[in-house]
Amino acid sequence: MRFDIITVLPALLESPFAHSILQRAQKKGIAEIVVHSLRDYSTNKQKSVDDYPYGGGSGMVMSIEPFAKCIEGLKAMREYDEVIFMSPDGETLNQTIANELSGKGNVIILCGHYKGIDQRIRDLFVTREISIGDYVLSGGELPAAVLVDAIVRLIPGVLNDETSALSDSFQGELLDAPVYTRPADWNGHRVPDILLSGHEAKINEWRHEQALARTQARRPDLLED
Ligand code: SAH
């Protein structure tokens, strides 16, 4: 799967993709993540990518030309399944959306800044708008990194057995069960005996009960359907 991320702050996206599972996915050739600097597509000498809002008011607005130039250039090279704009007023990201997007081929992700992006970019180019929650951040880069991480770890072949996504919270209707590692006794705080029993069926049963109890206590809404 290929991600083309368009941003005015490419440096913000260097670290999130350079480590751990996301780095491995790229090395394995399962995910390709290309970050484009919006300023490179600016049409004026000052390399500006924003301007004052029509009608007045506070905050700068990102201009249509640089985004249009970058998106059209990308579309001339390959087909894209989605052009996603990260936006607090979009549909809220969840595991279902991440699963769905993990089956796509090529996607473009637009990161906004300042007051937002010219509405015409959204009307003309964007096919999907995604929020990472009901709060406002300064830019779309961290949301884009969150989205790509949530998607890439679901692409078959990215996770190995030890990090399998199948038992993760939200993958089914249950939250994940509690987990423990050595030592079995830390200052008198012991790991539940069942986990040391070696009895796989009983351990699975215990994990299911724990996951169910945790879901009932924390997120009863997940059990409603
Ligand atoms: N005026 C806009 C917020 C602009 S914040 C509004 O009230 O809706 C600047 C940029 O940060 C946005 O264009 C978007 O790309 C990004 N952003 C901020 N919060 C976000 C969130 N919760 N989810 C996704 N993107 C977000």
From TrEMBL:
Q: What domain of life does the native source organism fall in?
A: Bacteria
Q: What interactions and quaternary structure are annotated?
A: Homodimer.
Q: Which reaction does it catalyse?
A: guanosine(37) in tRNA + S-adenosyl-L-methionine = N(1)-methylguanosine(37) in tRNA + S-adenosyl-L-homocysteine + H(+)
* Family membership: Belongs to the RNA methyltransferase TrmD family.
Q: Which PANTHER family match?
A: TRNA (GUANINE-N(1)-)-METHYLTRANSFERASE
EC number, as in UniProt: 2.1.1.228
Listed GO biological process terms: tRNA N1-guanine methylation
Locate the residues binding S-adenosyl-L-methionine: G112, I132, G133, D134, Y135, V136, L137
Q: Which UniProt keywords apply?
A: Cytoplasm, Methyltransferase, S-adenosyl-L-methionine, Transferase, tRNA processing
Q: Where is the signal peptide?
A: none
Write out the GO MF terms. tRNA (guanine(37)-N1)-methyltransferase activity
A single Gene Ontology CC annotation of this entry is: cytosol
* EC primary class: transferase
Q: Where in the cell is it found?
A: Cytoplasm
What's the protein called, per UniProt? tRNA (guanine-N(1)-)-methyltransferase
Q: Which residues form the tRNA methyltransferase TRMD/TRM10-type domain?
A: 1-224
Tell me which Pfam families the record gives. Answer: tRNA_m1G_MT (PF01746)
Q: What does this protein do?
A: Specifically methylates guanosine-37 in various tRNAs.
